């Protein structure tokens, strides 16, 4: 599938530039900086929410103390969140010490802290209502772009930047140009948001959106449930993106209000203006898209599943902040119901949050997967970056719902990782080789609202 591509040039020195409309990225950074911000400008913006986890937190704490002093207060404890999710449970003494550092810092400063098994930062912040449309959210984790799926400016920063922002509540930004990905029509059975984003990355390249924003629009995107929109924003960073947006709408408001119990006021201006200038525009017909698989060892190596169909696999990994939500895991369970994993194939499932884990237990998804032969871990990041709970050995081949497949990402430098949607993983689990999910019956699920779920 070849997209239609349009290139436009924005002249930041043009005195008439203020006469044109703004992209969503420009609007949000204008609001947070109190300036008329345009792509290419530098602004100092006020932060709404700050986050770090057990790997990035300790260095951020050190910077905070160096900048503000040992007894200083956080800029906003009620809007500061720390998670223990990467080396969780601790896989060594250093990891355990990092966990304790997070616990101690959060307790001392009154910040929110989620412990082992509570979930991955990007799942927890959305589920627990810390992020709202229009917020500026910084996280000491590259996949903080996830929050753009509900209309926030979410972006990853280094631990030193985060430590400084914890003291000041502000951070400098270069206002990014925006690449627009417009998709129209209905997705075919077996094709999901993960396939869309892999195709986008394949077309743009792993650095084609560097320090730019990605904006996803069109009737196809508008029809996606929130959990699939989050997938698109999550992987904006895999093409270098500073942020990835889906403009919030009534579906966004409905989900957040039901999930969090908070009243959400939808600002109709939280979308790009019709006359906004985009760096490039990629246009697609949804019906033309096939399930995608990214070959080792870069997400940009996206091809139609038919090009790699039949590749033998050793391990299947279902989880991560990209595709570890209940709806993702349910797609796999639906395929495996009453079946067993193919011989000599193992499956590791890691839910993105405790809520996902508990709902799997209540609905029978847990039983379905374990009956099929899968191993289910507590919520966290685990195998995604090769930490523990499913590390690959030499020459192992893995098909994963993860976001990265760089050399050694999930273990041995001699292993090979392919990326795909949960549906492709589920279909491949039946045969022990990469399999086109269109060859079997697959499902698409609407958003699960855990706040409305009774045990």
Features:
Aconitase, domain 3; about 450 residues; alpha/beta; five-stranded mixed beta sheet; 3 domains; globular; five-stranded parallel beta sheet; about 30% helix
Label the CATH architecture of the largest domain: 2-Layer Sandwich
Shape: globular
At the fold tier of CATH, the topology name of the largest domain is Aconitase, domain 3
Could you estimate the helical fraction of the residues in percent? 25-40%
How many structurally independent domains? 3
Distance between the termini: 44 Å
Q: Roughly what fraction of the amino acids lie in strands?
A: 15-25%
Mean pLDDT: 95
Q: Kindly report the oligomeric state of this protein.
A: single chain
Give the total of beta strands.
Answer: 19
Radius of gyration: 21 Å
Strand order of the largest sheet: 1-12-9-10-11
Number of helices: 14
Global structural class: alpha/beta
Relevant CATH superfamily of the largest domain: Aconitase, domain 3
Protein name: 3-isopropylmalate dehydratase large subunit
Subunit structure: Heterodimer of LeuC and LeuD.
Region (Disordered): 1-20
Pfam family, one: Aconitase
């Amino acid at each position: 599938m070849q997209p239609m591509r349009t290139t436009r040039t924005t002249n930041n020195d043009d005195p008439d530039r203020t006469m044109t409309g703004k992209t969503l990225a420009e609007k949000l950074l204008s609001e947070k900086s109190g300036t008329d911000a345009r792509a290419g400008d530098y602004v100092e913006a006020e932060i709404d929410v700050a986050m770090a986890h057990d790997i990035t937190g300790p260095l951020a704490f050190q910077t905070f103390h160096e900048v503000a002093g040992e007894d200083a207060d956080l800029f906003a404890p009620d809007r500061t969140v720390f998670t223990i999710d990467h080396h969780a449970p601790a896989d060594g003494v250093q990891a355990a010490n990092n966990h304790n550092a997070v616990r101690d810092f959060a307790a001392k400063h009154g910040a929110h802290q989620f412990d082992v098994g509570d979930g991955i930062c990007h799942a927890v912040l959305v589920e627990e209502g810390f992020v709202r449309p229009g917020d500026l959210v910084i996280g000491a984790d590259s996949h903080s772009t996830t929050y753009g799926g509900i209309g926030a400016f979410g972006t990853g920063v280094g631990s030193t930047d985060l430590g400084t922002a914890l003291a000041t509540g502000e951070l400098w930004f270069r206002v990014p140009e925006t690449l627009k990905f417009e998709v129209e029509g209905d997705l075919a059975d077996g094709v999901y948001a993960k396939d869309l984003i892999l195709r986008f990355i394949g077309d743009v390249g792993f650095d084609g959106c560097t320090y730019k924003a990605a904006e996803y629009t069109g009737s196809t995107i508008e029809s996606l449930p929130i959990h699939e929109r989050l997938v698109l924003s999550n992987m904006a960073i895999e093409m270098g993106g500073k942020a990835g947006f889906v403009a919030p709408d009534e579906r966004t408001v409905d989900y957040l209000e039901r999930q969090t119990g908070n009243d959400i006021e939808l600002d109709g201006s939280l979308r790009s203006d019709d006359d906004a200038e985009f760096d490039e525009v990629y246009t697609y017909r949804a019906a033309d898209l096939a399930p995608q698989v990214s070959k080792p060892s870069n997400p940009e190596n996206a091809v139609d599943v038919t090009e790699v169909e039949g590749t033998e696999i050793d391990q299947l990994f279902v989880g991560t902040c990209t595709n570890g939500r209940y709806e993702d895991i349910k797609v796999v369970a639906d395929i495996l119901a009453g079946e067993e994993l193919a011989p000599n194939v193992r499956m590791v499932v890691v839910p993105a949050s405790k809520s996902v884990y508990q709902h799997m237990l209540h609905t029978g998804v847990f039983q379905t997967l374990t009956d099929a032969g899968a191993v289910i871990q507590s919520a966290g990041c685990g195998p995604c970056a090769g930490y523990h709970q499913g590390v690959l050995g030499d020459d192992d081949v893995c098909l994963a719902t993860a976001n990265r497949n760089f050399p050694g990402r999930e273990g041995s430098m001699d292993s090979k990782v392919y990326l795909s949607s949960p549906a492709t993983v589920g279909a491949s689990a039946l045969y022990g080789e990469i399999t086109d999910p269109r060859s079997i019956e697959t499902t698409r699920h609407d958003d699960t609202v855990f706040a409305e779920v009774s045990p």
